[in-house]
Amino acid sequence: MKKIYKISLVLLILLSIIFGYIQFKFNSTNKAVMDYLIDSEGLSKDSLITEPFMANLSGSKNWMVSVKIEGDSKTYYYYLNRENKVVLESYVENGVEKVMD
């Protein structure tokens, strides 16, 4: 019985670490994008709707944030590159995606 409890405890700890890492990446990426848009682009926090997500892309592009700006029909997708700089990866307008180079 003790072996089952130990295995369960180890699995619970591993799952907690994985979940915590994912939440950390979501929060840190979202905060960096919000700070960039507010400080560098001069947008107000109230005009932004952000949603962090896993993009299933390679490297740092895996952790992305979708951004809707009040009064703008486009949806923008940002990520943090290896130098921790916010980069616009693509945007969608009228159902058509434009990938930035």
Summarize the structure.
The chain is of the alpha+beta class. The chain has 1 helix and 5 strands; from the N terminus they run H-E-E-E-E-E. The protein has one domain (2-99).
Polypeptide structure, described:
The protein is of the alpha+beta class and 101 residues long. It has one domain (2-99). The protein has one helix at residues 2-39; strands at 48-54, 63-69, 75-80, 86-93, 96-99. It has a five-stranded antiparallel β-sheet, covered by helices on one side. Strand 2 (63-69) and strand 3 form a beta hairpin. This is DUF3139 domain-containing protein.
Task: Write the SSE topology.
Blueprint: H1 2-39, E1 48-54, E2 63-69, E3 75-80, E4 86-93, E5 96-99
Antiparallel strand pairs: 1-2, 2-3, 3-4, 4-5
Total individual domains? 1
How are the strands of the biggest sheet laid out side by side? 1-2-3-4-5
**What do the pLDDT scores average to?**
95
Helix count from the secondary structure assignment? 1
Tertiary shape: elongated
**Fraction in beta strands:** 25-35%
Task: Considering the chains and any ligands shown, give keywords for the structure.
1 helix; 101 residues; DUF3139 domain-containing protein; single chain; alpha+beta; elongated; 38% helix
